[in-house]
Specification:
CATH class of chain A: Mainly Alpha
Largest sheet of chain A: none
Shape of chain B: globular
Bound molecules: adenosine-5'-triphosphate, magnesium ion
Radius of gyration of chain A: 27 Å
CATH superfamily of the largest domain in chain B: P-loop containing nucleotide triphosphate hydrolases
CATH architecture of the largest domain in chain B: 3-Layer(aba) Sandwich
Number of strands of chain A: 0
Largest sheet of chain B: 6 strands, mixed
CATH architecture of chain A: Orthogonal Bundle
Largest interface: A-B, 19 and 20 residues
Oligomer: heterodimer
Mean pLDDT of chain B: 94
CATH topology of chain A: MetI-like fold
Shape of chain A: flat
Order of helices and strands of chain B: EEEHEEHHHEHEHEEH
CATH class of the largest domain in chain B: Alpha Beta
């Protein structure tokens, strides 16, 4: 009844669609085009003389420099030293951070002690500690590795802590209700449940390690990517300098991809 | 085997949750516990199974559990509590892994539990691939695999939709009667309590005390019959009259946090 009346009073109108936008959709073509377009513009800027090669070398020049450095062995000489430092620093920092994070996640005392310390020390740029560490540990590899380890420690500890803290209580209760020993609960319930958070922490810690190795090597090192970049800058060789920057960037991408693989292999259950 | 729960008092900090709640479950008996929300039902169940220590009171077992029983008091959880990284079969095997069993016994028990809960076809599947009802079946299979004497079930169906509940409750009943397992079954749902229980313990609002114990004389197998409905409806009305005022007050309560 009432519908008929209202229909008679006003003419029918369509309801306009207003739910568009704000939805992420995959656009793979754009991703693939972004790099070539950028490189082409960059190359054009130099070929047409809009920018001087003294300030910015052309992509082709950088590629040539990269090839030259690879063939001469200079690249590997520096890269291998940096990789070793990252490797040692990351493993030490991760191991310590993991243990500290677990202690904070599992024990109330650990949390009470650890939380204020971590909150106070995490924001310190770890590179600021390098001079102090050199005073303590001498001028060899130790202070650089220690700086990286300190940088890696905090994100790892925080990730491990929040991962353990977020393990559903009901899963732990369940395991306890079947009389599982503590160690088995830790191994079979807590660690697997915390793994996603721990791997997310790894993503942050590897980029921190990369950042710190370059910075530390710029402050004082004979070899390494940071030392190389600094030397090339001092010698005003922008093409080789940029080649070094490209290597650092590729290294970061490579680490990210490794973590991505680990996530894919270990977290299929999510 | 009998389970005797005697809670004189239980409090979280200064909030008293249970007072003078005693409850005995004899072999094979199904006891439902109902009461307004927040009255301490989950707390009572936690105390009964030894994962909460009562502020004052005790829990005892009298008589021996079945010979092959590995965990006399076994929970079935409202949120299923499955390990999402383990397959169905591995979830069911979980409570056996830290026990020494004769060769092949573990696999035999797991297969047996899967078969009895209708999960044999999905043994290799991850929990995320299953519907809620199937997940709770895994929870049941994991409980059966240890051959429990008393199942402690905290609203095992309340995370499921109404139709799945209807299907599962019949399966629960079949299993409980066939295996002669006793159970404490906590629920908000009168129909579930009336379908399953030999006795229904009605708790008052917090601090929970036993307000009444309603026995259902009718055997479970006969409760589906049309002739039984009048009697069940009468019992349901009695439950509701016991609980209504408390429930309405509990529902308006503002949490003090
Ligand atoms: N760990 C805890 N710490 C403090 N208070 C708690 C804790 N667990 C439960 N409570 C409180 O104790 C009271 C009883 O909780 P309980 O979970 O036993 O009630 P319930 O009857 O199972 O409720 P529901 O029907 O909502 O499941 C509630 O008021 C709750 O907020
Ligand atoms: Mg509850």
């Amino acid at each position: 009844m009432s519908e008929d009346v209202s229909a008679a009073m006003s003419p029918a109108r369509g309801v306009a669609f207003r739910g568009g936008g704000f939805l992420p959709a995959p656009r793979p073509l754009y991703s693939w085009l972004a790099f070539p377009v950028l490189l082409t513009l960059w190359q054009a800027a130099l070929s047409f003389g809009w920018v001087s090669p003294v300030f910015l070398p052309a992509p082709t020049d950088i590629a040539v420099a990269l090839w030259r450095l690879t063939v001469s062995g200079a690249l590997w000489q520096n890269l291998s030293v940096s990789l070793l430092r990252i490797g040692f620093g990351w493993i030490i920092g991760s191991a310590l951070g993991f243990v500290a994070g677990l202690a904070m996640g599992l024990s109330s005392r650990g949390r009470a002690v650890g939380m204020p310390l971590v909150s106070a020390l995490y924001p310190i740029p770890k590179i600021a500690l390098l001079p102090l560490l050199i005073l303590w540990l001498g001028i060899g590899e130790a202070p650089k590795i220690a700086t990286i380890a300190a940088g890696v420690f905090f994100p790892t500890a925080i990730a491990a802590f929040s991962g353990v803290d977020a393990v559903p209580r009901s899963l732990i209760r369940m395991a306890q209700s079947f009389d599982l020993p503590m160690a088995a609960i830790l191994r079979k319930v807590v660690l697997p449940a915390a793994l996603p958070s721990i791997l997310a922490g790894c993503r942050i810690s590897v980029s921190t390690a990369l950042l710190l190795v370059v910075s530390a090597e710029m402050i004082g090192a004979e070899f390494g990517l940071g030392a190389f970049l600094l030397a090339e800058g001092n010698l005003s060789r922008p093409d080789e300098l940029m080649a070094g920057v490209v290597v650092v960037s590729l290294l970061g991408l490579g680490f990210g991809a490794l973590i991505g693989l680990a996530e894919k292999a270990l977290l299929t259950w999510r | 085997m009998d389970l005797i729960v005697e809670v004189k008092r239980h409090a979280y900090d200064r909030l008293t949750v249970l007072e003078d709640v005693s409850l005995t479950v004899r072999g094979g008996e199904i006891v439902a516990v109902i009461g307004p929300s927040g009255c301490g039902k989950s707390t009572l169940l936690g105390i009964a199974g030894g994962i909460l220590a009562p502020s004052a009171g005790s829990v005892r077992i009298e008589g021996a559990p079945p010979a092959d029983c590995l965990n006399p008091l076994t929970y079935v959880f409202q949120d299923f509590a499955l390990l999402p990284w383990r397959s169905v079969a591995d979830n069911v095997a979980f409570p056996l892994e830290h026990h020494r069993l004769p060769r092949g016994e573990r696999e035999r028990r797991v297969m047996d539990a899967l078969r009895r809960t209708g999960l044999a076809d999905v043994a290799g599947v991850l929990p995320k691939q299953l519907s809620g009802g199937m997940r709770q079946r895994v929870g049941i299979a994991r409980a059966l695999v240890v051959r429990p004497a008393v199942l402690l079930m905290d609203e095992p169906l309340s995370a499921l939709d109404a139709q799945t509940r209807e299907l599962l409750i019949e399966d629960f009943l079949d299993l409980l009667l066939r295996e002669q397992v006793a159970a404490i079954y906590v629920t908000h749902n009168f129909a579930e309590a009336l379908r399953l229980a030999d006795r229904i313990v009605v708790l008052s609002r917090r601090p929970g005390r036993i307000k009444d114990v309603v026995a259902i004389p009718l055997p479970q197998r006969e409760r589906g019959a049309a002739s039984a409905q009048a009697e069940l409806a009468e019992l349901g009305a009695r439950l509701w009259s016991l609980i209504r005022d408390d429930a309405s007050i509990a529902e308006r309560e503002v949490a003090d946090v």
